[in-house]
Amino acid sequence: MQEVKTICTAFGISPTAITPITQGLINQTYKVTDAGGDAFIVQQINTRIFQQPQQVQQNFVQLRAVLKHYYRMPELIPTAQNELMHTHGNEVWRCFTYMQDSYTPTGAISEELAYTTANCFGEYTRVLSAASPKLHTILPRFHDVSLRAEQLLQAKAGATPERLKLAARCLNELDNYDELLKRYKYWAAHPQYFPQRILHHDAKPSNILFNNKTQSVLCPIDLDTTQTGLCFSDLGDMIRSMVPSHEENEVRFADIEVRQSFLQALTEGYMDATHTLWTAQEKEALAYSGKMLLYMQAMRFLADFLNNDIYYQTKYELHNLDRTINQLTVLRQL
């Protein structure tokens, strides 16, 4: 913890307690308390993923300027030199106020939580799209389905014969969903019908802070991936992660089912918040949100398998292939 103490001094904090926060897969995060009882979040930014951390921080400033009128938001704490972040060797750190009496949901997701999550991120997009803050693009082409199809073709061309043989059935099945790729290309080519919207791009219950006492939404968090994109991304991602009865690492494929009640809760929650935002063409496109994200993620897992598992962490040799089969199992039922 000595390093974290050193980091704290750059933000003018003299910590008396430092507690690691284990939630979150990307950034290293600590809760820090000073002698006066004030609490802060001190976080190392993962610069392997977020290669322009200054732009991430500048985006947060722009986003908070809009969102503070609608949510109780954490404040960004500048360094003693009034910088948005602190560089310590090869590491980049930032600091926020800690939101007292708050929590992020863990464990099983209910239909009520699914509705609330979708409604929250729908409201987030509606508010930000109306305000149109100028944001940096943090992850270029992140949900670009055409790019993922191209990457799969490249991975296929460079794959070993052994892995290519193992992947053959999944490759053939993905070919059957060429209609989704054509649909995406149409959306991307017609911005007059499918304009760029400001989306969170990591919409899930654990990226919302709730009030401990009232259980109401305080604010969305982990805003680093927020950027413009097409309408399907956030709803599709929530459908992909919350509608299946089992998560993406499940290998008992026969047990995986689509939970229609969760699909309805997510769709209603999102549309209740955003129905005034979309064009008529976007409203039609949103019906394909879940299919599009499942199709894209299946291609990403399979491309990584064919590339010998260079991107996603794996626990066994066929892990990415099994993830692909998992996603296709859900896609077939949707």
UniProtKB/TrEMBL annotation:
Domain of life the protein comes from: Bacteria
PANTHER family, per database record: AMINOGLYCOSIDE PHOSPHOTRANSFERASE DOMAIN-CONTAINING PROTEIN-RELATED, SLR1880 PROTEIN
Gene3D superfamilies: 3.90.1200.10, Phosphorylase Kinase, domain 1
InterPro entries cross-referenced by the UniProt entry: Aminoglycoside_PTrfase, Kinase-like_dom_sf, Pseudomonas-type_ThrB
UniProt entry tagged with the keyword Flavoprotein: no
Record domain Aminoglycoside phosphotransferase: where: 18-247
KW Transferase (keyword) present: yes
Lineage, uppermost ranks: Bacteria, Pseudomonadati, Bacteroidota, Chitinophagia, Chitinophagales
Keywords: Transferase
Name under which the protein is recorded: Phosphotransferase
Record GO terms (molecular function): transferase activity
